[in-house]
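Human: I would love a firmer grasp of how sequence relates to backbone shape in proteins. Could you go through the record with me and say what the backbone is doing? Here is the record:
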Amino acid sequence: MIKHLKEEFNAQKKKVTYDSYYSTKAEIMVLSNEIEKLITRASVNAIDAETTALSRCFAISQPKIQFRIHPFQQFAATLYDKVDTQKHLDLVEKLEAV
């Protein structure tokens, strides 16, 4: 009888150990998925913030960039047959963009 009880006790002990192992493994998987979700959400927010910051930067620096572009490179349509090659040196052209 004692031998049978010891075998039953060892079987129960093994079952409790397996249950504990599997429940711990399940908790680890659930927490890993939650952490992965948080990291993904944080990375999407970081990319969104970076895109917003870059668009603001380009919007602010656009007049400064236009200031440095030569008039021949802007490919603007003109009514005149001849274009003044020194026009990019004119201060009025420079101050208009700023």
Remarks:
- The chain has two helices and no strands.
- The two ends are 98 Å apart (CA to CA).
- The CA atoms of residues 4 and 10 lie 10 Å apart.
- The chain has one domain: 2-97.
